Amino acid sequence: MNRAVPLFLIACFVLPAVSFGVAADETKDIPANAQETGVHNSLVDALAHAGLVEALQAEGPFTVFAPTDQAFTDAGIDLSTFDTEEENETLSTILLHHVVQGAVDAANVTDGMVATTLSGYKVAFTVTNDSVMIDDANVTTADVMASNGIIHVIDKVLMPPGDIPTIAQDTGVHASLVEALTKADLVTALQGEGPFTVFAPTDQAFTDAGIDLSTYDTAEEIEALADILQYHVYAGAVPSGNVTDGLTVAMLNGDDATFTVANGTVMVGGATVTIADVEASNGIIHVIDKVLMPPADEPVAVDPFEGVTCAATVGIDSSGYAFTPIVVNIAVGETVCWSWEDSSMPHNVKEVDGFKSTTYVMGGVSSGAAASTVAFHHTFTEDTTFYYACEPHIGLDMFGEVRVGNGGAEPATPDTSDSGSDDSEDTPGFLVIPTLFAMIAALVLMGRYDKQE
Q1: CATH number where 107 lies
Q2: What span, in angstroms and rounded, lies between the C-alpha atoms of 262 and 243?
């Protein structure tokens, strides 16, 4: 059946039943018609206060959803309180939220139809068998024709959407989100100009995630909470129609989130979007059924010897029972680094008093207690030989040696104290004389033996 038929019937039979207070003159513009209805004095005053009368006297066409005087009273709008430029701008936005560019008569309104008002925000229509609604206002009289458009009388003032925190506060299912934003001091940020896209977990989602906001007390915990919340915010407006399968975006905390689109269902991370495209004054809200947890940050590699120039680096060999290299030669003023990570057993460096000695030097150089991961360095400032051992494995001859400069050896110095004496045993003259005497004595003895024979 053509949808225009039931809509026409609605407009012709249901709505006129409450239209007795509205008169129309198709030769007059919208403000003039509103002024003559008798039930739109507040609307006319508001248009004048906001400086919009002339705009609605233009050629158009416009479609105006006109709240009655009672609607203004119910909304608590007191025009005398709109004094500042900012307040008048707010009033103007409210009024423009009741105006759609173009002529939209009742017969062209369909259930679920969405229209963008001159405020820049959208309004949605609901059509049932006995009523037409625009957002939460009932159309009480339709199709009041004017020279530059159409007026539909409504029973409530249409309020433009608030900012993201305000809307979240009003949903009834985002109390935990609002409380978390307050605790992490992010409310003001999400009241900013934006636009932002917020993926808003419900209260049940917070419960399912085991997040107890009363336990977030320390600065570190609050920072972690802020990181979680910022992982739900994208800087920019992303309506559901722009989301594609596999789309990846960087969220406000710097981490990436990936979307999945399948069979009409949109997911972000492991959360399903249950309600999409909730319009806010500074962005879009998509309701989700899980709290998104930021991916674990990759560990940042830290150089334990940053700022240190290692002339030599000593590690542990493949056997696990020896340093490598065992002996290191460096110059005075240079640094030796000892480094091993996740070794199969703990090791350390501890100074001993000599080559392969088992006696530790009291107060000597040491890397501390034995450990499977060690990053230790020492700078040697004089000629010396540094002997050391691994404490747990000293019985297995796990020793090492660092020779610095000349190793600390004393230079050989010749003894010249008696160099000027002729009687020195080291001089050739002193040795010749005794030798001659010995030879003469031997010849004399040999001569005596010959005579006796």
Answers
A1: 2.30.180.10
A2: 11
265 and 358 share a domain? no
Q: Do both 397 and 426 map to the same domain?
A: no
Contacts of 142 (CB under 8 A, 6+ apart): 10, 11, 15, 105, 106, 132, 152, 153
| 189 phi, psi to nearest 5 deg | -60, -40
pLDDT per position as a tens digit, 419-439: 444 444 444 544 555 555 555
Count of beta carbons in the 10 Å neighbourhood of residue 352: 20
Up-side HSE of residue 443: CA atoms within 13 Å toward CB? 6
Domain of 56, in residue numbers: 4-154
Q: What is the predicted pLDDT for the residue at 297?
A: 64
Can you read off the two tokens belonging to residue 394? Answer: 């000293």
**Range with the poorest average pLDDT among 39-53, 258-272, 289-303:** 289-303
Does 170 lie in the same domain as 80? no
Counted domains in the chain: 4
pLDDT at 443: 52
Phi-psi category of residue 416: left, alpha or beta, with phi > 0 → left and psi -120 to 50 → alpha: alpha
Out of 123, 154, 185, a domain closes at: 154
Tell me if residue 311 falls in helix, strand or coil.
strand
| Strand 384-389, strand 374-379: pairing | unpaired
Residue 305 lies in a domain: no
Q: State the first-to-last Cα distance of the chain, in angstroms, to the nearest integer.
A: 167
| Res 10: pLDDT | 37
Q: Are residues 22 and 144 in the same domain?
A: yes
Residue 409 · residue 432 · CB < 8 Å: no
Same domain, 332 and 218: no
Compute CA distances 332 → 187, 231, 304, 322, whole Å: 61, 54, 23, 25
The tens digit of pLDDT for each residue in 91-126 reads 999 999 999 999 998 888 999 898 999 988 889 899
Are both 205 and 322 inside the same structural domain?
no
Distance CA 166, CA 244 (A): 29
Chain position carrying tokens 């680094």: 337
Q: pLDDT tens digits for 246-269?
A: 999 999 999 999 999 999 899 999
85-91 long-range contacts, CB within 8 A, separation 24+: 88/49, 88/50, 88/51, 91/46, 91/49, 91/50
In a domain, 413, yes or no: no
